[in-house]
Amino acid sequence: MNLNLTGKTALVCGASRGLGYACAEALAKEGVSVLMVARREDVLQEAAERVMKVATHGAMVTYVAADITTEVGRVAVFSVQQDFDILVTNAGGPAPGDFRQWNKDTWMAAVDANMYTPIALIQTVIDGMAARGFGRIINITSGSVKAPIDVLGLSNGARSGLTGFVAGVARSDVAAKGVTINNLLPGLFDTDRLQSLTESAMQATGQSEEAIHTARKANIPVRRFGQAHEFGAMCAFLCSDLAGYITGQNILMDGGAYPGTF
Ligand code: NAD
């Protein structure tokens, strides 16, 4: 399958580890020049070097250490480069907890990181994409949008807001100009985020890591956690020419865990 991505450019956020990293790697392997963003410069630099090793067709890998959920961070990124063919929005997920303990500041931080930040990024790049006749926007959201997770109320809420926004803008005038916008919804993927959620569950329940993982896998028909490279491969496909007829969709990658027919 020829994804025909050679020579394209991508901004990938939350790219030093996990799912964002896997998207950056999958795109670079297809010859896409990638600008990677995450907060810690040392970790990001090392990640960018690893991606550069697998890049093909002369693709370049650069990075900007910035907090993408802040205006300052976004200005730092766009001062390096403004036009991209591909945007992958991503940042850390909100902490789990009991909604009774969350105040307005807690909610505003979650909405800022998981709803407003992707919207602000889309706003910056989308008109350039439409003018050039090609654009791919992938938002890494969560299976919690489709099937809410009790302790992740901040994620359930903030990401649902983003999902509603994307449903509208994906079908706006940009659709006829070659710009697609889709959300990728991870179920349980074997990343640092999953590990930190496991640690929270260990503290809350007193159960061992093994017991928590065994119980979680028992609820997934494929009986395992997802691997980040599987996620990256789907991201690269959605960014390709071949996926030009897919827009405004929420694509769940959860090993069959969501039990509905649709
Ligand atoms: P992760 O914690 O392993 O990696 C997150 C990446 O984002 C890291 O590179 C981190 O440095 C970067 N990052 C975090 N906050 C940032 C910020 N403010 N600015 C710039 N970079 C930032 O997480 P992951 O497992 O790769 O998950 C990615 C997203 O998908 C998260 O929002 C997570 O909540 C969501 N998600 C993950 C899973 C899963 O099973 N892994 C399931 C559902 C949803």
TrEMBL record:
Matches recorded under Pfam families: adh_short_C2
InterPro entries (alphabetical): NAD(P)-bd_dom_sf, SDR, SDR_fam
Gene3D superfamilies tied to this protein: NAD(P)-binding Rossmann-like Domain
Family: Belongs to the short-chain dehydrogenases/reductases (SDR) family.
Protein name per UniProt: SDR family oxidoreductase
Organism for this UniProt entry: Vitreoscilla stercoraria
Taxonomic path: Bacteria, Pseudomonadati, Pseudomonadota, Betaproteobacteria, Neisseriales
